[in-house]
Every structure is written in C-alpha cells, then in structure tokens.
Design goal:
It is built from 7 helices and 15 strands. It is of the alpha+beta class and 321 residues long. The strands form 4 sheets. The protein has a 6-stranded mixed beta sheet with strand order 2-15-14-4-7-11. A 4-stranded antiparallel beta sheet has the order 1-3-13-12, with no helix packed on it. A 3-stranded antiparallel beta sheet has the order 5-6-8, covered by helices on one side. About 5% of the residues have low confidence.
Length: 321
C-alpha cells in the first residue's frame, strides 16, 4: 500500500514538471514574437509632439545687447547688511561672559579684495543707558572724603568700538561727533549739581570734562568700555566679521549694535541690530522677587543670615565640647 502511494507521488511530480516546461516554452515563444513585431507610436508622436519626460525644444529669446558697464550702473550705492551670532544671551548664576560675533556684507561691493582697504567698517555696541554719579575724594584733616561729584544721564553700561583701522584714519572728527562714535563722543548728559565740602555748587565745564574722562577711565578699567582699532576684518570682497567679548560684569538688558560703512571718510551706509541679555533660571526668579517685593526679600535675607549665624555658632560650640 505504501509502495502504491509512493508511485503515485512520483508520477504526479513528473506530470507537473512536464507541464511547467511546456508552459515556459509557450511563454518564451510569445515574448519573442512580441519583440520582433513593431510597436505603433503613440498618438502624440504621430502628431510630431515630444513624448512625456523628454525636453521640449524651446527657442531662447534674443538677449538684449547691453554693454558690460551698463549691466550695473556705476552710481549704484553700496549698502551694508549685518547681524549678530545670537540675538538673545541667557544670563544665569554661572555666567562668566560670552563672545558675540558681528558679521555682515557690503552689497554692490566694488572692493577688489579683502586686503585692499577699499572700505572701512566701524562696529559700535552700546549697553543700557543709566544714571551714574562720579565722585572725587580729597584729603581733609587726614581723612579722605568725597568733596566733589558730577552726575551724568544716559551713560551706556557697555560701550565697544571695533573698526578696520584707527578712527582718525576713517572719518573726520565732525563725522564721529555727529554719529557719537568714540569714547570722547559718547552721549553723557551732565545732570544735577556737585557737592563741594558739604555745600552744593555747579562745576565749571572744564571740571565736568575731567569727571567725564574719569568715568570713561573707570569703565575701561572694568572692561566695560573697550576699543579695538583692527577688530573688524574682511574675509572676502564684501564679507566681514568681528568678535566682541562681553564681560561677566556687564549689565543685563538690550544692547544696540550699529554698523557703519565708510569710504574715503564718507559714510555710505548704516545698519542697526539689537542684542538682548536676559536673566534665566533661578537668578531671574530671585531678581524679579527682589524688585517686586523688596520688603519681603529684605526680611527674608536677614532671616537667612541670622539662621546661618546661629547654625554656625551651634555647630562650633558643639564641636568645642
């Protein structure tokens, strides 16, 4: 019985194999006949139109005959475009300063190369203006006392000047005064009277200038007023950049960045962009709490100080026993 089933299986396998070979032969013959018979062209080809996916012949329009110097008129003004590497800087408790990259390009540049010195770039960054009092100490009776002072309004908390070369080689003094470029031309408005030996009197203009220079000197010593005569560099015919460092003691707030383009002591273009320093994290919450609820903040700091002192006294007394 088992031998009979085995024979039937072998016979079925042989039949199926022969049928598959016969079907393959018929299919190959049909494909060969189809390859030899011509394929009629599509209706679009019969009408002389290009097939889909093929480039259509297009006759280019006749280009107007324009001379090379007429393509861009020689009187096209140059303009400067600029931006900063980041518009917002987060200031946290671990803030140790940061570096800002000011970059830009000169549109319609006629400069032959980066080292030609055809254009001059001046970058000015001003921090939040504030009111500052400058005091002068004098020795009276062997004791140093504040004898005179002068108050200025609108003093920038930070002031940086970066340029391609010294300012006196870029433009005239009148131009620098008009655009408030330079430490000597920063807008500082004298406000109020000075104090002299306990009485109030107004300082003369010469003494006010001395106080102004002292203010700039103190700001420069703190790293808040900086200047670099070769801080801006061209990296191509039109591209330029400048790396400006902001110290850790900079005042938080908006910073106005002004970029000037000069050529032969003439201002060609100016571009303004704003940078913001904002408190983030726990420092922001503490700052907002201190300014919104100053009384509660003061009482809280006193309680924290007293608790720390009592804890230190308790620990030190316990360790001595």
């Amino acid at each position: 019985m088992a031998m009979q089933h085995y024979r039937r299986a072998i016979a079925s396998t042989i039949v199926l194999t022969l049928a598959a070979i016969f079907a393959s032969a018929l299919l190959e013959a049909a494909l060969a006949q189809r390859r030899t018979s011509p394929t009629p062209p599509p209706p679009s080809a019969q009408r002389g139109e290009p097939r889909r996916g093929q480039q259509m012949p297009v006759t280019p329009p006749a280009a107007p005959k324009v001379k090379l110097d007429e393509a861009r008129p020689p009187d096209t003004p140059e303009t400067v475009q600029a931006d900063v590497s980041t518009r917002n800087v987060a200031v946290t408790s671990g803030f140790t300063g940061t570096e800002i990259v000011v970059f830009g390009a000169v549109d319609n540049s006629r400069q032959p190369g980066a080292e030609s010195g055809y254009y001059d770039i001046v970058v000015v960054i001003e921090g939040t203006p504030s009111r500052i009092a400058v005091r002068k100490k004098s020795r009276i009776g062997g004791i140093w006392l504040n004898t005179r002072s002068s108050t200025f309004e609108g003093v920038p908390s930070y002031y940086a000047i970066w340029s391609t070369r010294p300012l006196d080689e870029i433009a005239s003094e009148a131009t620098m005064i008009g655009y408030e470029i330079g430490f000597d031309h920063v807008r500082m408005t004298p406000a109020g009277d000075s104090e002299l030996a306990g009485s109030s009197s107004r300082l003369p203009a010469a003494d006010t200038g001395e106080f102004r220079k002292a203010l700039v000197r103190l700001k420069s010593g703190s790293g808040l007023y900086v200047k670099d005569d070769f801080g801006v560099a061209f990296i191509g015919r039109s591209l330029f950049r400048a790396n400006i460092a902001l110290p850790a003691n900079v005042t938080v707030g908006p910073f106005d960045t002004r970029v000037y383009l000069f050529r032969n002591e003439k201002l060609l273009s100016q571009y303004n962009v704003r940078l913001n320093l904002e408190r983030e994290g726990i420092e922001r919450h503490v700052h907002d709490f201190a300014f919104n609820w100053p009384l509660i903040y003061g009482m809280g700091t006193v309680l924290i100080a007293m608790s720390a002192g009592l804890l230190a006294a308790f620990v030190s007394g316990k360790s001595l026993r």
